[in-house]
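Kindly inspect the following:
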Amino acid sequence: MAILHGTWIINHQNSYFFIWGETWRYSQVQTEVSTEIALHPLAMNSAELNEWLEASNLSITNLIQPSLTPLKQRIKNKPSPEIKLPIHSQIISLPTYFVENQKSEFTKISPVHSVSVDIDSPSSQYLHPWKIEGFCLTPALAIQFIASLPLSTNDSKAALLGTDIHFWVHIYRWHLDLISRCKLLPTVEKQDSNLIAKWQILLDSAIDATRLEKFASQMPLACRIYQQNTENLAIDLPLLPQEIILSFLNHITDNQLRLMVGSQSPIEPRMIMSLPTALQQWLQGLINANNTIDAAGGERLETTLKAWTLPLQYQLTSKALFRTCFQLLPPENEAPDWTLNYFLQAADNPEFLIDAATIWDQPVEKLIYQNRTIEQPQETFLRGLGLASRLYSTITPSLETASPKFCHLTPLQAYEFIKAVTW
C-alpha cells in the first residue's frame, strides 16, 4: 500500500507545494555518522510516483498537458510534445530508528513509516534528515491538484492520502470559503526593486481568527519539518504553523482569483485609459499573469494603498484576538445625556468584555484576565479607539484624556450613533 504526502514549502517568492509517495519495503540503511544525507528508502522515485498517481486517477500529467488542439495537431502533423514532469528533491526530517553495531563503524538507520509514528516501539526514535524525490507544484498546479483530492474520509481515494496532505485539503476548502465571502484585499508588494500587484486574504472576523488558531494547533508535524539546509545533517527548527498556513492561503488565493477572472477586465477599457499608468498596471496586474508595476508612479500607489489599508493592518497580521467595542447606556436619574462606555472584547467570544478602568489599572505587556492572556492591552484598546474616532468623531474629545473610559452623548448624538455608526 502506498501513501501520498505533501505540504506547502515557503521559498521566498517561489513557494510551492511538494508531493511525494511512501510505500512499504525494506527500509534499513547503513551509514557512517556525519555523512551526506541519504535517500529515503521508503520514498518512491519520480517514475514510480508518476506511475502510481496515474493508476490511482491522481495523475498530474493532465494538469500540465500543453494546450494544443487536435485540429492544430493534424495541420502541423506533429506528435504531442513530451510532458516534462516537475521533478524535485527535498530534504525532510522524519522520525528514525538508530541501531548501533558494536562490531562495525556503521550505524543502521531506518525511517519510521508514517502509519507507525504514533505506535509505541521499544526502539528510540529521533528526527533525522532524508532526501526525498517528488514533484514540485506551482500554486496554479497545486490548485488543480488539491481540488481533485477528496475531503470526505468515505471516498476511496482518501485512504491514499497521508495526514499532512489531507490537512491541506481542508485549508484549500477554507480558502474557497474566504473568496466566497470576499475576505481579501488587492495590494502591492515590493520584490527586489519592483512592485507587484497581488491579492491578500483578510482574516478580520471572529470565525476566521478562531479557525486559523484551530488549524494551527492541528497542523501535523510532518508539514513543518521540511528543511532548507541541504548540505549537512543539521536540522532546522520547525516553522510556526500560522506562518505556513498564511503563506499558502495568500499564494493560492492570489492564483485562484487570476484563474477565475482570467483576462476579463472588470473595468471598461476607456475608463482604464483615463487612469494614471501605475494604477492601470496595478488593476491589470490583479487579473493577469504579468503583475509587475513600473517604478514610475509606483511609490505613490504604494503609499496610497498603505493609507487605505491602514485600519486593517492589525487584522492582516492575524493578531486581532481582541478588539475595542462600545456599550451605549440610556440616561439615569433623569439625566439628559446617554453614556457610551468603552470595552475590550474577545474576537471569538462577544460576551468576554474588559472594561476600560481595568485596562488602565494594569499597565502591563500581557494582561491575564479570566484565564485569557491579552497582549499589549492598552495599545490594542487605544488603536481601536483611534480607528473608531474616524467613523464617529464625537468620541474624539474623550480621547484627549490620559485614560479614556467613556463619553457622554446627547439624545441626538446617541440616535446618530445607533443609526449610522454601529457595525
Remarks:
- Residues 394 and 413 are 8 Å apart (CA to CA).
